[in-house]
Design brief:
This protein is mostly helical and about 325 residues long. The chain has 16 helices and three strands. Helix 1 (about 20-30) crosses helix 13 (about 265-280) and helix 6 packs parallel to helix 9 (about 200-220). It is globular. The two termini are about 40 Å apart. The relative contact order is 0.12.
């Protein structure tokens, strides 16, 4: 299923052990090959195993997509149970195809575990493309902020993973903005209350994200775990490091079984590596993009409180227009 393979590069800042190559390839495909009207059924622990892809109509609703993916998942479970029983002869065409996705010496136990590891991942190609375009509004600012904090500017690829650079992005757990800060973490770095939520301001949130990443790095001592901590929390990342070793990235991502160390946390660093690679090779995957112009803005502080409607009336603009400049 791989169109282009992001090469394993000897990068001391963002190391990519060869064992993680299939994971990076998987996310590269999700970001560049499959649109949001497509998706893949894959093994959640071994991303080299992609069973099949599913195409949907743009008019298909969430339930229709869930039913279709569920039906195919059930069919794959039947196949895997059959193979896990030890069947290796007189295979059906589908059984032959599924078995060939695994190493030749795959054990029955591994196949039995795989029955409950079938996961559906929606494609993100169109959203990634839109995010690259939107990023033009803030990338020069973000790069400057990251440089000022003495952290790698490549970290500017993280919002592609978090939100596709969409300032209106909201997660099901309440994370908000292009950097997807939760309320509790956001309050450590910016104002987040019932009046003002600076998580939604790409400028303030980018400064805060740089500060959080720099802090994570100062404690973790390496970028793979500092980035993992951005998603999982620093405490959880440090527990994983104590169990497997500070730089045992493969063992941590493959074996660490922390209570909340789920699929998103295990894949956050490899998804970042894929996003970074695509971000650095835009012409290869998304040629001839016209990026949004950088936002040119000024900050004005009023002498006292004024209602939004009154301010909009005084300026002769709509409330919606005023809000668009004050995210």
């Amino acid at each position: 299923f791989v169109l282009f393979s992001a090469p394993a590069v000897a990068d001391e800042t963002f190391p990519q052990p060869p064992e993680l190559q299939p994971d990076v390839d998987f996310w590269t495909d999700i970001f560049t090959r499959y649109s949001t009207n497509q998706g893949v059924l894959h093994d959640s622990r071994n991303l080299a195993v992609v069973y099949e892809h599913i195409d949907f109509k743009s008019s298909d609703g969430r339930r229709t997509r869930q039913r279709a993916a569920g039906k195919r998942r059930d069919a794959l479970k039947v196949i895997l149970r059959s193979l896990a029983s030890g069947k290796r002869d007189n295979l059906t065409e589908d059984e032959t195809r599924v078995l060939a996705l695994w190493p030749k010496d795959v054990s029955n136990a591994t196949l039995a575990s795989a029955v409950d590891q079938i996961r559906y991942q929606q494609g993100l190609k169109d959203r990634f493309r839109e995010g690259l375009i939107r990023a033009g509004r803030w990338r020069s600012f973000i790069n400057a902020e990251l440089q000022a904090l003495n952290v790698p500017i490549e970290l500017a690829a993280l919002p592609h993973v978090e939100s596709s650079y969409n300032p209106a992005a909201r997660s099901h757990v309440g994370a908000s903005g292009i950097w997807q800060f939760t309320r509790s973490t956001g309050q450590r770095f910016m104002r987040v209350d019932h009046v003002l939520d600076e998580r939604n301001d790409p400028f303030v949130a980018s400064q805060s994200a740089g500060q959080l990443l720099a802090y994570n790095y100062s404690i973790a001592g390496n970028w793979p775990m500092a980035i993992t901590a951005y998603n999982h929390g620093l405490g959880g990342a440090l527990r994983a490091m104590r169990e497997y070793g500070d730089e045992a990235y493969v063992d941590i991502l493959r074996k660490y079984d922390g209570r909340t160390f789920g699929f998103a946390s295990r894949n956050f660093y490899v998804a970042f590596l894929a996003a970074k690679y695509v971000d650095q090779n835009v012409e290869r995957y998304f040629p001839n993009l016209n990026l949004d112009d950088p936002v040119d803005y000024a900050t004005l502080e009023l002498d006292s409180y004024i209602a939004l409607k009154d301010l909009a009336d005084a300026l002769g603009v709509s409330e919606k227009k005023l809000a668009s400049y004050n995210l």
